[in-house]
């Protein structure tokens, strides 16, 4: 693990193998770069980069409020410091919103864009549910963490994979709580802007889990329809964290897309 020298002090893990574009993975709210362990292992012969978002894991946060501009600057500063000219960007949940913002401004730095588990144009009822969830999260109790994990994993997977379940539970439990709420508030209050979406000209793949209740297949399909030339793939039998639960299908989907995009980098 390393830490950047610039103002964000971003904690990251970089594996550099050759001169191809690096695959960069962005985690979701309340989580850390370690959610990508199965992807880092699968892509061990590729260049990969994972990092902790501001206020998550080992990356500090000194601001009272967060914006997507902060997250985009964090990523730009990170790849600039590491001298990565072009990247394949994979964003999950909050990370997918950051990836969307980054792509709309710095598309020249991308070889491809993969948006996994991304919200898009929540209904009034969906907004109400996530706002209620935000109020529950403020209690910072076991109930809120267990509720999150029920949305993220199928019951069968959680029961059979207690070690993974505890790993993710511990991430949520060990959050800097004030910083977590800053990031969660940003996610809860997010309003989609098609002007931003329409600026994305990168070769794009949109994915989500078949049973994801927060970032639904319908959302993903509609998002893909809005991004010119993008492709949509549904990860069968998965919920929100299907990069972990359905890692074989997820990894192969990402690999096939990225391998096609290398020719266009």
Which characteristics define this entry?
8 strands, alpha/beta, globular, 265 residues, single chain, 46% helix, 12 helices, 15% strand, eight-stranded mixed sheet
The appropriate CATH architecture is: 3-Layer(aba) Sandwich
CATH topology: Rossmann fold
Which regions have little confidence, pLDDT < 50, spanning 5+ residues? none
Q: How many domains, in number, for the residues?
A: 1
Q: Rounded to an integer, what's the Rg over CA atoms?
A: 17 Å
Total of DSSP H or I helical runs spanning 4+ residues: 12
* Residues in β-strands, percent: 15-25%
Helix content: 40-55%
Q: In the CATH hierarchy, what is the class?
A: Alpha Beta
**Count of DSSP strands:** 8
**Sequence of strands across the biggest β-sheet:** 1-2-4-3-5-6-7-8
Q: Can you tell me the CATH superfamily? A: Alpha/Beta hydrolase fold, catalytic domain
Strand pairing plus helix content: what structural class? alpha/beta
Name the overall outline. globular
């Amino acid at each position: 693990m390393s830490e950047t020298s610039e103002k964000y002090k971003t904690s990251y893990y970089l594996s550099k193998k050759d001169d191809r574009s690096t695959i960069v993975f962005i985690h979701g709210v309340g989580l850390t770069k370690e959610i990508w362990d199965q992807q880092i292992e699968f892509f061990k012969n590729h260049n990969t980069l994972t990092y902790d978002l501001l206020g998550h894991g080992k990356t500090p946060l000194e601001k009272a409020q967060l914006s997507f501009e902060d997250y985009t600057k964090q990523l730009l500063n990170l790849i600039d410091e590491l001298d990565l000219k072009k990247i394949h960007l994979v964003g999950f949940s909050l990370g997918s919103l950051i990836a969307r913002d980054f792509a709309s401004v710095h598309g020249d730095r991308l070889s491809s864009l993969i948006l996994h588990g991304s919200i898009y144009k929540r209904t009034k009822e969906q907004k109400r549910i996530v706002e209620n969830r935000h109020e529950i999260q403020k209690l910072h109790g076991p109930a809120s963490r267990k509720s999150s994990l029920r949305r993220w994993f199928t019951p069968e997977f959680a029961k059979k994979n207690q070690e993974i379940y505890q790993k993710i539970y511990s991430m949520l439990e060990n959050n800097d709580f004030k910083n977590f709420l800053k990031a969660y508030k940003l996610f809860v209050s997010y309003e989609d802007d098609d002007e931003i979406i329409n600026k994305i000209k990168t070769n794009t793949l949109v994915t989500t889990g078949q049973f994801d209740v927060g970032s639904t297949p319908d959302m993903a399909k509609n998002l893909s329809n809005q991004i010119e030339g993008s492709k949509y793939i549904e990860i069968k039998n998965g919920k929100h964290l299907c990069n972990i639960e359905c890692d074989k299908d997820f990894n192969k989907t990402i690999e096939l897309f990225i391998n096609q995009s290398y020719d266009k980098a």
